[in-house]
TrEMBL record:
InterPro entries, A to Z: Rossmann-like_a/b/a_fold
Species: Sphingobium xenophagum
Protein's UniProt name: Phosphoadenosine phosphosulphate reductase domain-containing protein
Gene3D superfamilies, A to Z: HUPs
Superkingdom of origin: Bacteria
Length: 235
């Protein structure tokens, strides 16, 4: 047999190339039920990029009108297939009896004031941020992302106004191994007026200012005490 008659050796099949594409990191919107976070939610939904989860940390003593607005927005999200969770801080150790499960009972049981009255904001961290973090640490999409070496994307409703710029400057300086905080309203250059306009354009009422009514009562009591002292000096 001539060499030319021999069949050519078959080429070794080429290995298949694989491109490993990771799942996108889950996106969570921290919803404070106020103007900024509501405008952010509405705009994201209208762009076709709703968050994977919207979550609210409830201290238990928001103003009644805030809870009414929350119920309305919960229905709005449900109609659009957006998952919404409300979480609360669960105390585990109690200094005094009886046990407490919201900020008001905490204040009454321990005979203290919310930390914001002393110029600090630990009550917000304890009653709003901490329960959100606790929930997310058990949320399967977050656990899967962390297992892949990703961070969960947390959307924060800080607008481009001077007041929120100060809050942003403080928050953005804090490193976090689990979450990547993003501030879309600032990226879009939206101030509070723009947020209000966006909510109204969606046919929604503008939410009331979100704050616990205990702080409102405290402000009234301060004013009452100041007026009393001022009046006694005049008498």
């Amino acid at each position: 047999m001539l060499a030319s008659d021999r069949p050519a050796p078959s080429a070794r099949p080429r290995d298949i190339d694989y491109i490993r594409v990771a799942e996108p990191a889950p996106v969570v919107l921290a919803y404070g039920i106020g103007v900024d976070s509501t405008a952010l939610l509405v705009e994201l939904e209208s762009r076709g990029t709703p968050p994977d989860l919207v979550i609210t940390g409830d201290p238990g003593i928001e103003k009644p009108e805030t809870y009414v607005y929350q119920e309305m927005m919960a229905a709005w999200m449900a109609a659009r297939g957006i998952r919404y969770e409300t979480v609360r801080y669960t105390p585990k150790r109690f200094k005094h009896w009886p046990p407490y499960y919201d900020l008001l009972a905490n204040v009454l049981t321990n005979a203290t004031l919310p930390s914001i009255s002393l110029g600090r904001h630990s009550c917000s961290l304890k009653w709003k941020v901490a329960p959100q973090d606790a929930f997310l640490k058990q949320w399967e999409p977050a656990k899967a992302a962390w297992a892949r070496g990703q961070k969960v994307i947390r959307l924060i409703g800080y607008d481009a106004s001077p007041a929120d710029t100060r809050r942003y400057n403080h928050a953005s300086a804090i490193a976090n191994d689990l979450f990547e905080c993003r501030y879309p309203l600032r990226e879009w250059g939206w101030n509070r007026a723009a947020c209000i306009a966006r909510i109204e354009a969606a046919g929604l009422p503008v939410p009331p200012k979100s704050s616990c009514w205990l702080l409102c009562l405290q402000m009234v009591s301060r004013l009452t005490a100041t007026l009393y002292l001022w009046a006694t000096k005049l008498s």
